[in-house]
Specification:
The complex is a heterodimer.
Chain A lengths: L2 E12 L2 E12 L3 E5 L6 H9 L6 E6 L3 E4 L11 H6 L8 H7 L15 H14 L4 E5 L7 H17 L3 E5 L3 H7 L2 E5 L6 E6 L5 H16 L1
Parallel strand pairs in A: 3-7, 3-8, 5-6, 6-7
Antiparallel strand pairs in A: 1-2, 1-4, 8-9
Chain B lengths: L1 H25 L10 H7 L6 H32 L1 H15 L7 H8 L3 H26 L2 H9 L4 H12 L1 H25 L5 H10 L3 H29 L7
Helix pairs in contact in B: 2-11, 3-4, 3-6, 3-9, 3-10, 5-6, 6-9, 9-10, 9-11, 10-11
The chains are: A alpha/beta, B mainly alpha.
Chain lengths: 223, 248
């Protein structure tokens, strides 16, 4: 399988503060990779750098395909309806109605974000990336604001979408269970300045071992 | 509940009118200077020039406000988005915000003559500042996250200005325009008193010179009603333009 994302020696400083230090890893086509690390270690910054929302101090990001970003708090424009939000941007090629149906929001297309639930907003955020024809999704703790049941539903929805559309996903989370449940691979980051401590291939039959290993790694840097 | 409120309002108006009528008779006031409500009511049927005056005033108000609102929005978006332009042009223009528009009436009359351009220019000037400041605040208050969304979706150029900056600041813009039109309305009447041959302000000033206080009061009441209608229409239009805010 070809690489869709190559992160090479990525460094980031904010003034004198070093946030990321020589981050390198790869994400293959149709792979689901989670990034996990202690809070405040720079996971979101890393994702912003990969998307090009902020400029890195040094290092390189190579991507093959179109990247789409799913934000922690959906970030839908409140002044646009769900359909308008999905269709926003000048480069639309996909059929909005098809995507709305795909994400189960066709009945809510004319609603404003404030009028729908948090889960629906997050699905609309994902749909916006799909309408943008993204095949690489960068997701920044997208489900952290959702209640337990909604979270399970949206996670299942994402997995279905991932398989059907052959998406490549880079997913930031602080939830180990979520990372094990969803991913093929977990990138464990150290505390700031973040480095890649370990790349773990996920075998769901060995969830307990993986959980323990991640906890040990993160626990070590937090104490 | 709503019916009760309307009833109280009607009762209050009646009370004021009756009080006014009694006060004029009781204190034996000069009826030319202090006309009774009944004579004011009768004068409503003598308003020969009302249509022309309304037409002139509204035309001036609408065209002046239109120019002021459009230029205020443009300047607000530019100064809000480009901080370097705001540092120079914005700060320079800000000085003029503190010049009372009425102080400019004689100057505008000299420069642009007694015709329509001086009044439209003055109203545009008046309306410009509140719209500019509101639009500027709207753009400045637009959260960073929307800029990130725009960047992640390749939204830029005119599309970005229209769909993100303008629409994201629309609430602020409409509030500014409402304030601007309100001030422009007051300035309009004053400007017409000083240099015009028709219009509501001119007529009130003219009626003073011929001691027709009854018709003057009728005109003042019409001005109040007109101001109310303009403001209410503006609120309705704003609601239509910002449906996502209607629940508030």
């Amino acid at each position: 399988m070809t690489n869709k994302l190559i992160i090479k020696d990525l460094c980031m400083r904010f003034g004198k503060l070093r946030v990321l230090s020589d981050i390198s890893f790869e994400v293959k086509e149709n792979e689901f990779v989670s990034i996990i690390g202690p809070s405040g270690c720079g996971k979101t910054t890393l994702l912003y750098l990969i998307q090009g929302l902020v400029k890195q101090t040094s290092g390189e990001v190579i991507s093959v395909g179109k990247k789409g970003f799913v934000f922690q708090t959906h970030n839908l424009f409140p002044w646009k309806t769900i359909k308008e939000n999905i269709l926003v941007g000048p480069n639309k090629q996909s059929n909005a109605d098809f995507i709305l149906k795909n994400v189960g929001l066709e009945e809510f297309s004319d609603f404003y974000p404030e009028q729908v639930s948090e889960g629906m907003k997050q699905r609309a955020g994902i749909a916006r990336c799909l309408a943008y024809n993204s095949d690489i999704l960068l997701m920044d703790e997208p489900f952290c604001a959702l209640d337990y049941l909604t979270k399970i539903k949206v996670q299942e929805f994402l997995l279905k979408l991932w398989k059907e559309r052959k998406l490549t996903i880079l997913f930031v989370t602080h939830d180990i269970e979520e990372a094990i449940k969803l991913s093929d691979k977990i990138v464990v980051l150290s505390k700031s300045p973040a480095k890649v401590m370990k790349l773990i291939e996920v075998d769901r039959n060995k969830s307990d071992t993986i959980r323990e290993e991640v906890l040990n790694l993160i626990g070590k840097v937090q104490t | 509940m709503k019916n009760n409120k309307s009833l109280y309002l009607i009762l209050l108006v009646l009370f004021v009118l009756i009080g006014w009528q009694f006060a004029v008779s009781l204190f034996n006031l000069n009826k030319t200077l202090y006309p009774t409500p009944i004579s004011v009511f009768k004068s409503f049927f003598e308003l020969e020039n009302l249509f022309l005056d309304l037409q002139m005033s509204l035309l001036r108000l609408l065209s002046g406000s239109f120019v002021g609102i459009i230029s205020g929005i443009l300047f607000g978006i530019i100064t809000g988005h480009f901080s370097q332009i705001n540092e120079t042009f914005g700060k320079f223009t800000n000085f003029f915000r503190f010049v009372p528009p009425l102080a400019l009436v004689p100057l505008f009359l000299l420069w642009f003559g007694i015709g329509e351009s001086s009044k439209i220019g003055l109203l545009a000037w008046t309306c410009f500042f509140p719209v500019w400041i509101s639009t500027y605040n709207g753009v400045k208050n637009l959260e960073n996250k929307y800029y990130f969304v725009a960047k992640s979706l390749d939204i830029k150029g005119f599309y970005f200005i229209r769909e993100v900056l303008f629409k994201g600041s629309l609430n602020y813009i409409l509030n500014g325009a409402r304030i601007g039109i309100g001030i422009a309305f007051s300035v309009l009447v004053a400007a017409e008193m000083i240099g015009a041959y028709a219009g509501l302000g001119y007529r009130i000033f003219f009626l003073q010179s011929v001691y027709r206080v009854d018709i003057m009061i009728a005109y003042i009441i019409i001005l109040g009603i007109l101001g109310l209608i303009i403001d209410r229409s503006f609120v309705l239009i704003s609601k239509k333009l910002t449906p996502w805010k209607n629940d508030e």
